[in-house]
Amino acid sequence: MRRLALITAFCGASFALGEGQAQELSSSEVERGRYLTQAGDCKACHTDIENDGIPFAGGRALMTPFGTIYSANLTPDDETGLGRWTREDFYNALNEGIDDEGRHLYPAMPYPYFTLMTRQQTDAIFAYLQSLEPVQVEEQENDLPFPLNIRMSVSGWKLLFFDDEEFVINPDRSEEWNRGRFLVDGPLHCGACHSGKNLLGASKDDEYLRGGTLQNWFAPNIRGGENGGIAHWDEDDIFEFLKYGRAEHTAPMQRMGEVVAISTQFLQEEDLRAVATYLKSLDDTSREPEEAPETARLEAGEGIYFDNCAACHATDASGVPYFFAPLGTSNKLHAKDPSTVIRIILGGARAQPTETVPSMLAMPPFAWKLTDTQIADLLTFLRNTGDRRSGAVSAEAVAEMREYLAEEY
Amino acid sequence: MTNHLPKVDVVLVGFGWTGAIYAEKLTAAGMEVLALERGPWRDTPKDFATTFAQDELRYYWRHGMFQETSQSTVTFRNNGAQTALPMRHWGSFLPGNGVGGSGVHWNGQTYRFLPSDFVAKSHNAERYGPLPEDMTIQDYGVTYEELEPHFDYFEKICGICGTAGNLRGDIQKGGNPFEGPRSDEYPNPPMEMTFSQDRFEAAAREMGLNPFPVPSANMSRAYVNPLGLQLAPCTYCGFCEKYGCGNYSKSSPQTTIIPVLMQRPNFTLRTDSEVLSVEKSADGTRTTGVTYVDTSGERFFQPAEVVVLCAYPLENTRLMLLSEIGTPYDPQTGEGVVGKNYCYQVMSGARVFFDEEYTNGFVGAGALGMAVDEYNGDNFDHSGLGFIGGGYIACYTTNARPIESHPVPDGVPGWGSEWKQSVRANFLKTTTVGVHGASMAHRSNYLDLDPTYTDRHGRPLLRMTYDFTLNDRRLTAHITPVAEEIARGMGGREVNVAERKGSYDSMPYQTTHNTGGTIMGNDPQTSVCNRYCQSWDLHNLFVAGAGLFPQNAGYNPTGTVAALAYWTVAAIIDQYMADPGSLVQA
Fold first, then answer.
1. Nearest to B247 among A308, A311, A350 (CB)
2. Which of A161, A189, A207 is the C-terminal boundary of a domain?
3. Model-level pTM?
4. What is the ipTM of this complex?
5. Which of B44, B222, B259 is facing A320, going by the closest CB pair?
6. What domain count does chain B have?
7. Buried (b) or exposed (e) across B174-202, using 16+ Cβ within 10 A?
């Protein structure tokens, strides 16, 4: 069945192809495609994980700030998947954000990153996807307001924010650094979450990997050079985090947990080390210290910390490395936008189990136990311990998140 | 109507420590394993999170972790002349329920039995001459040497914290010099001791004894076990026994095995599924599977190549009796085996009250303690004493949970202002020195089916007929004064001795160490299972748990229960699967 689908697909594609043809049936291409598919974490969005969907058959509801988009079926089904797509079509989708009928794809699909991949690489991904069992699915209509429901509106967006660029090697840097940069900005599309977005959802150049907010999660600053969010991580820490799902400083949870579970834990060590090398090269500007909060709030927060948090995170907030996150240096705790820590305190969090580290560690939710003011005071205390002045957190911010979680979950 | 399900390789009845151990090893060997658990799924962050785990009312008083007596209980009497009545509220022991079983709410005291404990009958008869006729003890059929690698593995799975006393025959300073030879150190160092243990240690040394840290399943530091699972350092919060640990600091099936198991495609767990009976083939030589009922009252027949009883000992015995496997024990004739040799534990102690010093018992953990072993097993000469066996003497600081633990000296009234004043004065200034005594089997102590009381499915409850024996009374009378002497050496204001006298009372809590009923041994006439914990009657039925103990030693049972499980599962994989049949020719 699979083989049949593969051959059919190539018949359709044969006219469009030139030199690449020699590799069409080579298993090494499929294998390279599988690896790139894993690196791109394609399975995460293109599987209806919440409803135990078939891998790559799409249908996952992706909540964007602009409405709900349902992911596409990537299996080679003729009617509802990529069965009739050509390699050319697929290249256009990843490189320019255009589907087989010339329609613009919504940029929830990270083609602004995938565009860095070469034709050879997109061909390999395509070859892998075509080797899957075709699955016929019921297509779901996106739930977007006017005028976004008209795909032509995307073309304007692309005009403004999208550059169809190939990856350019920086000859002044090592091969490893270049490989790392390609992975981070290309298939891994880290900036899709970790870079700040403008109001139209495009990554802002000046907020490159300085942290971004998506679906009420704040994906932290992951610049590893001086003043960066993970300046205190070394390259081994970054490697361990991505490979094993545990590092001295923290573990991937929720959304990043998914990325590690589906994608990064299976990537080759040299690739992950290249990512680490690249991230560690990114300096950041130093942050202006915020105003010191009122003493009363700090004292209240300290008491709440001692009663509720110290048992795991230790009295001095130093945590238990590889287990309970040390809080003093946390890039989530000290972020300008405290959404993620507010959310974790309210709703709890699960550290992602991986093949190497199977423990299913979790922090319990505190929404039922602590009031908005208590959580705000607790965070204000933690963000202003030692010589850090990361700013106060307001009870209103906690209330807003509580309301959001109550509505969404 | 009973629904017939597709066959599996192995079905496990119950999913606590032994169920998890069997499932992990059998699935790793490629077998398709199904575990049936009577109770619900339970998981650290959802069911015993730090935010509410330390709730005395819920867990101590209302028995939040335990088997509900309305679902199933036992009837109890002291002797055959009495009429047994059902226990409607647990007291002396607290059987678990749900995933993880009692392994969720245990203290974590993880000893190995002594080499001589496994050959209690032959060893004592050889040293002291013929044993009393009514003392129905016997050898396990398996030796300490055979179990040693399995003790070692379980200690590594749990990350047990302790100090070796006998490393491959070399006696080690600071450990228990009486323990059997160990192939390896404990994986973690002992816990931090508190004031009470320091005083106990000094007093014991003064008497020429050799105190050692209790082997603890509460972690002295962060640990990763051989399955890659993580345990966190214990916070000494003092909520272990009767509670689940919210900090991942206590070894339990949940923290040390289950997360790995749940990822394996050849493992299935069905919760809220109560096994009603083990079914037999027409010729009565093998089991065909089990019948269970779900929460909707639907009945299912689950066929299997192999069935393993991994429930609590009392329930394993009951299932065998209800399923008419093996001959029920008859105390009149002494014949039959199922239900035979029910044993328990003989506890006593001495409580010390200090005047000036604070013991601060709230800085506690289930297995935080120092012990001496000079009076355990056959570590001392019993000539002329009129009893065999013994017990360890230990000073634990497990808790200062105020609803449960608010001791006052003897003579203080049980209520009123004088009582309140005394509670206030003594609350953080007291500790105990306990004796954890062995229990030797006696002809008149046994388990059978109750003739009157039934459960909600109409099946007879298990009846327990039990009282302390002459051996128990002599044992406790000999060792309790030693505990008292240590206690008096600890420098307190006064010492109150709690002797073990009178008949066994099923209400005050003692220990959840119910043993026997499905005992192992070398002779099908006197035991239910052979040395591989395999039923003598049905060769594809195996039994786990402390029900295998022919008599109970002066230690907590979990270490030995786990070692026996690993020993049996190795025999199933290495011998039984290649050539199914009885592993021992009777």
1. A311
2. A161
3. 0.92
4. 0.87
5. B222
6. 1
7. ebbebbbbbeeebbbebbebbbbbebbbe
